[in-house]
Design brief:
Pfam family, one: NUDT9_N
Bound molecules: 5-O-phosphono-beta-D-ribofuranose
Mean pLDDT: 91
Order of helices and strands: EEEEEEEEEEEEEEHHEEEH
CATH superfamily of one domain: Nucleoside Triphosphate Pyrophosphohydrolase
Largest sheet: 7 strands, mixed
Keywords: Signal
Number of helices: 3
InterPro entries: NUDIX_hydrolase-like_dom_sf, NUDIX_hydrolase_dom, NUDT9
Protein name: Nudix hydrolase domain-containing protein
Length: about 300
């Protein structure tokens, strides 16, 4: 399959001073079997992704996983008379606003602004429309005997970032997660790091507070590195992931860089990974770490 529209990292509206890499089209949420199911997506070739391209026959399966139905953290069924969402708005303490601008509602359902995915419904996602996540990119310089490692070919310093191995797909990923209703996105990024990459879930309340006191300053100084759509394998025509990714850099390596990592919650592994173009990551995380490398003038 030619992926002529894939690629592109185009810069868009800048947040703070950091550049925001945008995903030009989605690939990982097209084709194949939908995650945690036996439902086959209908194939959608590159030229058919956009809703503005008319397709004679497009009749994808309609799938909402049993695991989200009736859950307190999830929306009601779209046809439930008690479900009265305020699309494209802040709806109580749930944000139904997309970073991509207003999305369309067709036959009562929000339409994925990036186009067709070969499956409709909500899949395993909790929200119809945008599902908001936060991703922390925690970095330090790679050092040997206290000296920063310089990569021979690029002559640039090698950056390391914290990655977790996801329990659901087994892929390496940023230790991100969903923003809780009413939660500040930046707070969610720090909380997710704590839950996914440290042993905070085993800590007592006092230990958690001590951790927070120690790392509050570090995690309050993050730069927004990306804000937008995520090419997440769970996306559907009516439900999709969006994230804000924050870069938290430990220049000296003495703060978070010296932390003992511990896989928690949804992770089965955690480690410092040398950042370069060979790194394969979940969803759109590769584009995000690349943007961090560029921002810090690191080897990639
Ligand atoms: C990705 O899914 C986001 O970038 C974030 O890393 C993650 C959030 O989902 P869970 O890890 O909570 O499943 O799209």
């Amino acid at each position: 399959m030619t992926i002529k529209t894939l690629l592109l990292l185009v810069s868009s509206s800048l947040l703070n001073k950091s550049s925001t890499a945008m995903i030009a089209t989605h690939v990982k949420c097209r084709g194949g079997v939908y995650p945690r199911s036996t439902i086959q997506r209908v194939p959608v070739v590159d030229d058919e992704v956009s809703w503005s391209t008319e397709i004679k026959k497009y009749d994808p399966p309609d799938y909402t996983a049993q695991s989200v139905i009736g859950k307190p953290w999830a929306d009601l069924d779209i046809a439930d008379p008690n479900f009265k969402p305020k699309w494209n708005s802040i709806d109580g303490n749930v944000s139904r606003v997309s970073y991509l601008g207003d999305y369309s509602i067709v036959n009562g359902r929000p339409l994925n602004p990036m186009g067709r995915t070969g499956i409709k419904g909500r899949g395993v996602l909790g929200r119809w429309g945008p599902n908001h996540a936060a991703d922390p990119v925690v970095t330090r310089w790679k050092k040997t005997d206290g000296k920063v490692n310089i990569q021979e070919n690029s002559s640039r310093p090698i950056l390391q970032f914290v990655a977790i191995k996801r329990r659901d797909t087994g892929e390496w990923a940023l230790p991100g997660g969903m923003v809780d209703p009413g939660e500040r996105v930046s707070a969610a990024a720090a909380r997710e790091f704590q839950e996914e990459a440290t042993n905070s879930l085993l800590m007592s309340q006092a230990e958690k507070e001590a951790w927070q006191a120690k790392f509050n300053k570090f995690f309050s100084g993050g730069d927004v590195i990306y804000k937008g759509y995520v090419d997440d394998p769970r996306n559907t025509d009516n439900s999709w992931m969006e994230t804000v990714a924050y870069s938290f850099h430990d220049e000296s390596g003495d703060t978070v860089g010296a932390l003992q990592l511990h896989a928690g919650d949804d992770a089965v592994g955690v480690r410092w990974v040398d950042l370069d173009r060979q790194v394969q990551l979940y969803a759109s995380h590769q584009a995000i770490v690349k943007a961090v490398a560029e921002k810090l003038n690191a080897h990639y």
